[in-house]
Structure prediction request, 308 residues.
Amino acid sequence: MGYNKKDWIFYGRLKRHLVQVFHFVQTGRVMIRLNTEGLLEEILVPPNSSQSFSFFIDDELCELKVVYDANKNTFDYIFEDHRYSTSRLGRWYKQQDWLDKGKVVGIILLALAIISPIAYAILHKEHTQNQLLTGMTTTAQILNLQQTDAKHGALANYHYTFNQQSFNQTTQVWYNKQSKQYESPNGLPIKQGSSFEVLVEPDNPKNNRLLFDHPTDTELVQMKIATRNVCVANSPNKPTDQAMMYCDCQIRFLYELYGIESLAYLYHQQTSSVDNPHYNLVTYGNFMTRKGIREVLERCNKTIDNEQ
Prediction:
């Protein structure tokens, strides 16, 4: 039985996705696949008719249209990605399209010129660092770290390669004056040589965002070791070997529950709110009341009891 087939590449938040439609014209059967896996399957009633199919990819609303031309007795297939979705990112793209058409470009440029070049720099940084939510990833390595004049301010210079081109970029990080260590925005220690994934816009590789919540496997191991050392230091009532076993147990299961965020709370369990307003003694206490954590602590205590 003959069928029509069409493919598209969708650039998701962290990777590319293959979207395919298979249309069996005689029966009206439509199959939509995502990365060769079945996503949707429906029957057009009647077979010679049009229909739209909506679905989410990487939390972005997408739409695939099967369009029937009665005059030519043919079908066309249209895939509309997040640029036209109702999501936050989709609304942002619509605004950008609107600006590109020149409806308010003149007003914005005039306002920027009046306010100062600093305003433009802020907006540009917002676009390149924070609004980049789709693209492809590669590995970046921190070359050096340096403090700035701002309170707890610091800069990380990092390097990555994309499409055989090398890029050096800078992003803001945190300097912990209490521990005299540099930390990522999500509260974990970093140093020269630390490595993370970086999200890159394929058509403009200079436009990127360093993903501190996606460390490389090697970096993740170092973060867990640093967190364990803090945990052991704050377990004075347990012998060192038992404390290490208990802390390793905590880190393992809390990481499974809450990801890299859990490491940040454990690492800053004795940090004051003055030194870090986001990860500190108070927010650690709040974190430890979350769902499932009490069961983790009980399980880890039983593990130690069984070893004695």
Summary: Residues 164 and 308 are 55 Å apart (CA to CA). Residues 218-307 form one domain. The helical segments are 88-100, 105-115, 117-130, 217-233, 240-258, 260-267, 281-287, 293-307.
